[in-house]
Amino acid sequence: MLAKKITYNVLISSGTKILSIGIALYGIRLLAQYLGPEGFGKYTLVLAFFAAFNAFSDMGLHPIVTRKISRKDSNESEIFSKVFTLRLVISSLISILASIFIWFLPYESDVKSGILIAGLAFIFGSSYGLLNSIFQKNLAMDKVALAEFIGKVIQMSIIVSLVKFELPFIYSIIAIFLAMINNFTLIFLFSRKYIKIKLDFDLIYWKEFLRESLPMGISAIAVFLYFKVDAILLSFLQNSFVVGIYGTAYKIIETMIFFPGMVVGLVYPLFSRYIFDEKDKFLKVANTTIKFFALICIPLVVLVQFFAKDIIYIIGGDAYALSVPLLKILIFALASIFFGNLFTSILLAANLQKKLMIILLSAAFGNILLNFLLIPIYSYTGAAIVSVITEIFVAITAFLIAIKKTPLRFNFNFLLFVIIAVILMYTTFSVLNFNNYINAVIVLFLYIILIFGLKVFSINDLKSLLNKN
What we know:
The structure is a single chain. This protein is mostly helical. The chain folds into two domains: 1-227, no CATH class; 228-469, no CATH class. Helix content is 85%, strand content 0%. It has helices spanning 2-58, 61-70, 76-101, 109-137, 141-164, 170-191, 203-227, 229-237, 240-256, 258-274, 279-315, 323-349, 353-405, 414-431, 436-453, 459-466. The chain is globular, with a radius of gyration of 23 Å. It starts with a helix and ends with a helix.
């Protein structure tokens, strides 16, 4: 019964997530073409501030409260009420401070208004994000997926109206605000089936809780700084047009990040279970996941080199031609994110959070420094290169620490297959005289034959990633 419930939640969550991504890509296409590079740059900038608000208010509350309410005989309502109230206080304070600080920034009035609306939206967004822990514990993430899907539909409806009636840019931010209100309202109502929440101000409890959660909160800020701050730095050092060109390519990458996170979410419980007591099983799952990610990233990186122009033109049209080389660069950042997520999850499973925090803080510091050095010289190209360097740094550093501090051992013979596959795919694609779409089908077919012919990956390998026993 439990296995069926888990499978149901995974299928529903994955299905609605894929639908939401499709809607999001269509929304990006509408906004990019309607607003143009400068207007889309404003939109990207506001979303970067929205992410900043979430990062600085995170404080590691979500994973710690999930752990606490999942313990046997815990007083769920009391614990969650205290932490939920803490979340509201932190979010409200950040929103108030941001509303004051934003008027001192050198942005146009519509951008400042958009950031203020985003500040209000984030109060609802961060609050419903914390509520997710209730559904995680009760294996009811399908309800969260449903609420978020409805929110995405509401957001898309407003974007369509914005384009149809030629409304100002600010309505794209209002769309986010209304979507967040929807998500919070529905998820709060759904949560009442499992827990009763009330406002509970407890300064002593908050102090003890933050002492435990703060290291993860610092890590969340570090992730934001190296993952999202580039758009803000571009707005300071360049202009909205540049942010729009960069943001279009980066938004495409962002829509695909869910996949490595979803796979790591499946294998993380296995890492946690096996890493100390059943090392052989841990090694099997870890190396199978490494192979699985590599087999996905190889065609992804190669094909984007040939299809970047088509992808950008579908999303933004001729106005975003300058985004094409950026997508070709940023796809290497996405490939690195796959492995970065994997190796950082191994560190978490091994209780090496402090070492992970040092990695992320180092990445954040290096990212900001390199952006200040390269953006004035190379503009958005410099920002894209810095993103790749940062993600590679996180992946390699986490890998090296995992090799040193955990049972992880990697079969480097697999790298030979990676090199052969990349060379064969790139050469075959370059030599074929058909159009790119036919070439892609042929290359992928040969790639699959190569995988199974050399017995690089099997159905049993895939089953080992999904095994929860």
